[in-house]
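Hello Y.,

Per our agreement to keep a running log of every chain we model this quarter, I'm adding this entry. I've kept the format consistent with earlier entries: sequence first, then predicted structure.
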Amino acid sequence: MTTGPNIDKKVKVCHLASKHKMNDMRIFEKECKSLAKAGFDVTLIGFGDTAKTEVIDGVRCISLFCPIKNNLELLRKRNKMSLETALDVDADIYHLHEPELLPVGMKLKRKGKIVIFDSHEYYGWQLRDNIHKIKVIKTPAFLMKVFGNLYMRYEKHVCMKIDGVVQVCTMNGVDYFGHRCQKTLFIRNLPSLSDYTRKTPIDYSQGPAVAMIGGITKERGITQLIEAAHQAKAKLLLAGAFSPKTYETELKESPAYACVDYKGFLDKKGMVALLEEANIGASTLLNVGQYDKIDTLPTKVYDYMSMQLPVVISNTDFAQKMNEKYHFAICIDPEKPEDIADAIKWLKEHPEQAVEMGNNGRKAIEEEFNWEKESEKLVDFYKNLLA
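Predicted structure for the entry above:
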């Protein structure tokens, strides 16, 4: 049994992220900054284009640099650098944000540290369905299923030994980590009330301006969304990183891509500016992998709701139940561009109802779906582990 540190002193917390960007919304903007505000001594270790250390909003950010190109060697080297730097920090609690860092977590646990794994996605399911981002070469589906099952066994082995797991939601009502870890906490990726607040009224007189922020992949329905925006004569405000890079080339070869206004990869300030420019939000993830199973809305949808945008969203069971209660969206079949286009055109032709849907979404954010409530749960989880 691990003996917790003296909670009368300022508790040192170290977050590790070997692949996410240093300014990641969930890791830095939400979790790290909230913990620093709550009185913890917070360090974030990650990787960037240069090696540097700086303090931002009360968080000590250590950016490491690893120039290795070979994927396997890069993974080994990053884990070694992450572990060495983490031990130098000598924190009381270590909070890991990558499945690749699970071996590092085991080594920290052997040092008597409190260790938490933050599972941003359900990686085992993603691997078994052959759509996870860590896939770097074309792999037969049956091998990916084997790899996914092996990963889930290793993940359970580690999570039963460390102190806790943070996850986003259940899947079809089932706890993915049920009986697979010591303690678990559900922390949804919700927006802060102060971060996303609309400054200008929504205007439909100039035609539809549809926002789509986040990862740009086939599995997220971007091909169909672009075709739909083209059919609806709408401008598509697209922001995020293409994965793989060849997908960008593929999309640009379509005549429909003429409707796209690509904004690149944006920080929080840039995303707010993009959503101010939009009058509709879109989240048309295909029904693959975990996307149609998770019992939460995609993070981007909560951001759209905060900015009072009506949403065109994939018709998952959870999204339809949410919409029946809060009336903020139009649920569509993400495989059918014509259905997406019809929803966009309907919102353009019914501006009063569209504004009402946007206001309903904002009200739901203010009353229930905001980071201020989620951050309290995270702080309490840390305190319970320390006790």
